[in-house]
Design brief:
The complex is a heterodimer of chains A (613) and B (347).
Chain A: E1 5-9, E2 11-19, H1 24-38, E3 41-47, E4 62-70, E5 81-86, H2 89-95, E6 99-108, H3 114-119, E7 136-140, H4 142-149, H5 157-161, H6 164-175, H7 181-190, H8 195-214, E8 220-224, E9 232-238, H9 239-254, E10 258-262, H10 269-275, E11 284-287, H11 291-303, E12 307-312, H12 314-330, E13 334-340, H13 357-362, E14 372-374, H14 380-395, E15 398-404, H15 405-409, E16 411-414, E17 463-465, H16 480-495, E18 513-520, H17 524-536, E19 541-546, E20 548-550, H18 556-560, E21 563-570, H19 576-584, E22 589-592, H20 601-612
Parallel strand pairs in A: 1-8, 2-5, 5-6, 6-7, 10-11, 10-12, 12-13, 13-15, 14-15, 18-19, 18-21, 21-22
Antiparallel strand pairs in A: 2-4, 3-4, 9-16, 14-20
Helix pairs in contact in A: 1-6, 4-8, 6-8, 7-8, 9-10, 9-14, 11-12, 17-20
Chain B: H1 33-43, E1 54-58, E2 73-76, H2 82-92, E3 97-103, H3 104-110, H4 112-121, E4 126-131, H5 166-172, E5 177-182, H6 186-198, E6 203-208, H7 220-223, H8 225-231, E7 232-234, E8 242-243, E9 249-254, E10 257-262, H9 280-287, E11 301-308, H10 314-329, H11 334-339, E12 344-346
Parallel strand pairs in B: 1-2, 1-3, 3-4, 4-6, 5-6, 7-11
Antiparallel strand pairs in B: 5-11, 8-9, 9-10
Helix pairs in contact in B: 1-6, 3-4
Classes of the chains: A alpha/beta (613), B alpha/beta (347).
Bound molecules: thiamine diphosphate and iron/sulfur cluster (SF4).
Amino acid sequence: MSTKNFEVLEEVVIKFAGDSGDGMQLTGGQFTNTAALFGNDLGTFPDFPAEIRAPIGTVAGVSGYQLNFGSKEIYTPGDKCDVLVAMNSAALKVNLFNLKKGGIIIANTSGFDLKNLKLSGYDKNPLDDGTLDGYNLIKVDVTRMTREATEDIQLGVKEKDRCKNMFVLGFLYWMFDRPMENTINFITKKFAKQDDVKEANLRALKAGYHYGDTTETFTTRYHVEKAKMEPGTYRNIMGNQALSLGLVAASQKSGLPLFLGAYPITPASDILHELAKFKNFGIRTYQAEDEIAAICSAIGASFGGSLGVTTTSGPGMALKLEAMGLAVMLEIPLVICDIQRGGPSTGLPTKTEQADLLHALYGRNGECPMPVLAARSPADCFDTVLEAARIAIQHMTPVILLSDGYIANGAEPWRFPSGNDLREIKTSFAKPMENGEKFMPYARDEKLARPWAIPGTRGLEHRIGGLEKQNITGNISYEPENHEFMVKLREEKVELVADYIPLQSLDSGPEKGELLVLGWGGTYGSIKASVKELQDEGYKVAHAHLRYLKPFPKNLGELLHNYDKVLVPEINNGQLVKVIRDKFMIPAIPFNKIQGLPIMKAELVNSIKSLLA
Amino acid sequence: MIDSSTVTEPVVKLTAKDFQTDQDVRWCPGCGDYSILKQVHTILPQLGLKKEDLVFISGIGCSSRFPYYTDTFGMHSIHGRATAVASGLKATRPELSVWIVTGDGDALSIGGNHFIHLMRRNFDVNVLMFNNQIYGLTKGQYSPTSEVNKITKSTPYGSVDHPFNPIALALGSDATFVARSMDRDPAHLQQMLLQTWKHKGASFLEIYQNCNIYNDQAFELFTEKGTKKMNDLFMVEGQPLIFGNNDEMGIRLDGFTPQVVNLNDGFSKDDLMVHQPKDINKAMILSRLYEMNDSEHHFPKPFGVFYVKDRDTYEDVMNGQVEAALAKMGTGDLDKLLRGKETWTVV
Ligand SMILES: Cc1ncc(C[n+]2csc(CCOP(=O)(O)OP(=O)(O)O)c2C)c(N)n1
Ligand code: SF4
């Protein structure tokens, strides 16, 4: 049968694009799982339209899913695509710019009829008018063939057409030499109770596969070998999922019940959805009436001895600021997760950005310090939130964790830990007092943390609040010197966290030299891929990536001074770079992209080269 | 992890004095808050609870200083949000007795959203709203309960907005206990505080409180000897609604329309509306009674319990879900959770 050639590739980027109703997320997800199970390294990123039900066939309604898989290490969902699946003309219009020259387009011809062309703003059919010269265009009438494959099944045309994505998936499995088992199992399970639907999906999938096999037009198939990954057992994980699991782990490792107060907001809502499932882990999720109530309820829960958590995105962060100030004054544990999105205001709700850093560091009334951490990749959300919870509990302070839409919805293979491998989070509540001795709610330990004295404990009755207080007694105090003392004390307490976190290490590159690329958060993959490419070409470039943004690791200044130049790439208008310049007095150089999109390898590589020239 | 075993131990005899703190009470001399504080301290020992199981949470305002003066656990939180803080505490620590102290501005203006949601969710907490129909702490601006055309610092030409009726708002938010009392009637206030506490569910007690600095005598009609009897209607469950200098006046229902009748004009007590606080329709009528006053009708202001209803509390249902999940699925296995559904192994 297979007389066709195999070409071996190291890495492939596929973009699945179609109308919101075309099931592209599911298709991409299935291909991803299959690639992962096969042993490829990978990175994925879904790209949703902002509107829930944008008009069918329009550019606004295009939903995409990008997957980068390979036999080498993969750090990002990839820059430009090798393969573009376009289920209709709108999908082509939106994504063509991002296809490599000579790349493959798999176009569903029935999505390019007059109506679709008009809706997507094409005067002429781009499949026929030479627009796509220079690309490898594969025209397939997916709709017709799906209907033919499911001809004798008792289902309406609408239902049959819903299987189109399975035809495409089958075809791609053929093209990339992947077994169908995983998806067959998935379909069988998912539609266990709807025989006809199950059958139709299976037929479409297989028809797509055999179409590749039997049609003479396609001469090349591709093969991507297994990646050489660290030995171990892996699963695929998305950022918000990892963050949710990290919170469950934090609850288990601290022995504290977890309370999540949240108000739905893209792209943070999935954390609420995920944690709501885990009731048998003693987790309580509370969908509050707004963001303010969400954080306040979490504060109430923490006051009562739970691990209080609130999750949100930019506009919700803005609403929570006053309550964060209260948490700083109360000095109780609280984890605040900001899954950043494009701002300001409602901004770009479904696009990514790193523009809440200054907001997290400084955006409150008064001198209001709290530790700030950032996750760098989907799987890293797990470790980072666990670390945030540890700091919150052991240092008696609210902690902000920054993630972003890119890593929240992106996925990567994760060599998950076993529960036993995770560090305990030592937790202790203040003990009852029997002898009438006066309890001092603002007495401090060596970390400057005060006791966590929860209601229900005999002899510890005390009042706390947002008014300035005297150290040790916690009594209200308006004394001028006391305020200055307390402001500095709260700052020192947060800075002391630096004694309990790892020193900053280099991700790669020489320990001294001409250029250090310093990143934070979700740009990790892009920076790593860029620096790797340059290092492979012989450039002496180093990369360090920050998890701790307040306080900075103690050796950061020393590390930065080892390089002539420090470049700080960010998806914002230059925020970390300001802090670095301010704190270390070095002329750090900004690299900014503010398009709601991740940084592309090519862009950063070029920019670094020009700095080294 | 949280040790709630202490709650079931035998109860210690406490006195009002045990609830005083060492902090100087800083309200203006003559402020109605003093009386409310005193009545609360008087009833607390009667609850049979230990001090450490009581929590007072307040927002911001003169009234919200309350927790500093009460020797229990307490939090003086932020403006309008005491209700939200208390919700999280009660959800996770249902065994605690949680009290919310708030003002008319704190509860109904900046905290209006949380207030209505607390009521509908029915957390088992006690909300004491000190209504002085003014912003005290910020020195005398009109509040959402101030009467129309009120002259204050922020409204030199008179306020424009129509006021809230807090009782009707609470009923409209599906509160399960709604009552009203006043600072100047210690016996009634104590009785209402006890009933507020006794009710399992979100209990709302509106307390008329005189701010003698910025809104003095706002409730004079209802609190002073000479006028009180003709203007106050003290509602007692199962009893006909009677008021007046010699208990000669009564409220009668004509269909859904209340009327004031004089028992000396041929009406008997049997003709009167009987107070049935479990009847939401009657509660609604009574909540609006005073608003029906006009040149021809003279309706009194009702005090007492307007409405009581048994409904599952939020925390009971929430924690019931957790327990049911534990019973059904067993305690969660972290390793299984981390592993997920699909894995692959690289050797
Ligand atoms: C976010 C915020 N906005 C405004 C204020 C100022 N403020 C404090 S108390 C208050 C109104 C208090 O009125 P009320 O709740 O009726 O309490 P009272 O002082 O009358 O007891 C205002 C506007 C504040 N503390 N916080
Ligand atoms: S301003 Fe009014 S409410 Fe505030 S303490 Fe003084 S009298 Fe009481």
